[in-house]
Amino acid sequence: MNSLIAVGSIAYDTLETPFGRRDRALGGSAVHFALAANLFTDVGVVGVVGDDFDGEPVLAERGIDTSGIQVVAGGATFAWEGRYGFDLNVAETLDTRLGVFEQFDPQLSAEQAKAPVLFLGNIVPDLQRSVRKQSQAGFVALDSMNLWIEIAKDSLIGAIGEVDCVILNDGEARQLTGESTLAKAARAISAHGPRIVVIKRGEYGAALFVDGAFFGVPGYPLEEVFDPTGAGDSFAGGFVGYLAATGQTEPDIAHLKRAVAYGSIVASFNVEEFGTERVQRLTRDEVETRVGEFHAMTSFDLG
Q: Do the Cβ atoms of 117 and 239 come closer than 8 Å?
């Protein structure tokens, strides 16, 4: 049995930044998440693809359980095309083709339902709630995106009330709550039910709000950034994957702080190359080395 099940999109991304271009790069929230989380624990993926999909070996070679990936004969895999300018925080969507993802109706097997940790990627909130009802997980984390806040806000708020941890970026947190500061936004999100709120801040780091306490880390300083696509999902994979590896279904503040650091570091590797290229060959030793550097540069002696 996998210790962690991830439900989300599996896609092909066509990416263009000032530093290059990739056509039909492996992507999607479940893929980026699973490759990151697999550095810490065993992961199973639940998703849907068309019979044009040939990325499963990449996941299988990393030991990721792909038995939950449904292949629809005659269908096309979800495809997204986007472009970034020199402000890599902003993506311009050029084309979106949902393909078989439009009819995605995730169903957990009996074994998947028993996994102790569940991650709900940024799919339709009603689907997130459906999967949550199927799962017996003791710890459930949820991610979302601006589209669902715009068109399915009430359903998303309902889904948030059924999970233990919410992971959003700063813009999404403000959009969802109408609050201008992250502290107020996190408090408003927690009021719906989740104990843990994590707010991703891109190159500026991440913030953790739990049990009235706050913890924050800066972004890891990088001289070269090629593509931010999937960085948020890689952060979530590092964060949730680390927690799953601890075996805690009610993680304490110490483990949550470390999870934020590990998530931030995995995301820092993600942006160094296009798509999943860097994380595909990332090792735990590389992560531990950079986490050590991160700890050294973010701690200080009070004297």
A: no
Query: Tokens 């459906």 sit at which residue?
Result: 130
Q: Output the pLDDT for position 300.
A: 87
Q: Is 111 in a helix, a strand, or coil?
A: helix
CA angle 263, 264, 266 (to 5 degrees): 65
Total residues found in the chain within this entry? 303
- Helix/strand/coil for 215: strand
> Is there a domain that residue 157 lies in?
yes
Phi and psi at residue 149, to the nearest 5°:
-65, -35
Q: Give per-residue pLDDT as tens, 113-164.
A: 999 999 999 999 999 999 999 999 999 999 999 989 999 999 999 999 999 9
Q: Which of 89, 49, 84, 85 is nearest to 69 (CA)?
A: 49
Residue 303 covered by a domain: no
Choose between 206 and 301: higher pLDDT. Answer: 206
Domain containing 156 equals 4-298
Give domain status of residue 93, yes or no: yes
Total structural domains within the chain: 1
Residue 179 counted as domain residue: yes
DSSP strand E in the chain: where?
A: 4-7, 11-17, 20-27, 43-50, 65-72, 79-84, 91-97, 117-120, 139-143, 165-169, 196-200, 206-210, 213-217
